[in-house]
Amino acid sequence: MAQEQQRTSQVIIVGARLHPLRDIYHLLLRASWTRAISLLGAVYVVMNLAFAICYWRLGGVANMTPGSFKDAFFFSVQTMATIGYGGMYPQSEIANVLMTIESICGVFVTAIFTGLVFSKFARASARIVFSRNVVIGPHDGVKTLMLRIGNDRNDSVLDARVRCVLTRTVHTAEGKTFYRMVDLKLARDVAPVLARAFVIMHPIDEDSPLFGLTPADYVEQEIEVMVSVSGLDETTMQPVHAVFSYEDPQILHDHRLADVLSEKPNGNIIMDVRRFHDVERI
């Protein structure tokens, strides 16, 4: 039930001020474990290389092979990691000053790295999956916009609240292009327990902003449907959320979602998540 759908376009921000030092914490929290560990490891190596160059050029470390950058690097690692084997140790004033500075840097680096790793472990991340397409078709005699969401973990999302927002391109009386956002009223916007599958439905009746629109109107008005889901992770009891957007090519008219539930003769209910993204033409 992995999410594979990609958006067909994206917003490119121009002219925004960058705050690299203030944003790097959030960047590392959002990054994958592989990227985060690789970046932290690279920072650690670069800092040791910088101090190793100083030891190598200034000397003053006992038992270090003269001119050996390798020994200088390993001494730097021992100092920053507070290992201190004792085979090499500072014996000059400048080497002791460098050792003191590196020890202070090592304390801060260890604290920052520990905090980031703990935060990534403690942070609850949602694995809410959205169906690849939104479908429009009859449901109980009413034309309805439908999509499916589900939790791709073995636990559940409690009190999951869903919100759908329609974005359309309109032209004002002044001739300006305006992207209008309208909330779509859902048949049910709360799932007490969100497990593997939950169908979100918006009846397209006289009160719907989609009432009377043809497939050509969807293209002309650049219709986009944004869906947001928020709730509590059952295991960690921490808030989780997810957002996904559907553009016109992902909105299928005269289709319905394929059934994922079936009943066996003994009364057991089977949920086939392999059909999570499947749709059927009406």
By DSSP, the count of extended strands is: 16
Uncertain stretches: 2-7
What's the average pLDDT? 90
- β-sheet strand percentage: 25-35%
Order of helices and strands: HHEHEHEEEEEEEHEEEEEEE
The CA-CA distance between the termini, in Å, is 24 Å
Radius of gyration: 29 Å
Question: Helix count, per DSSP?
Answer: 5
The SS-based structural class is: alpha+beta
Major sheet description: 5 strands, mixed
Q: What portion of residues is helical? A: 25-40%
Shape: elongated
Summarize the SSE layout with pairings.
Blueprint: H1 20-30, H2 33-58, E1 61-62, H3 69-80, E2 89-90, H4 93-122, E3 128-130, E4 134-139, E5 142-151, E6 157-171, E7 177-184, E8 190-194, E9 198-203, H5 215-220, E10 224-233, E11 239-247, E12 251-253, E13 255-257, E14 261-263, E15 269-271, E16 279-281
Parallel strand pairs: 4-12
Antiparallel strand pairs: 1-2, 3-5, 4-5, 5-9, 6-7, 6-8, 6-10, 10-11, 13-16, 14-15
Helix pairs in contact: 2-3, 2-4
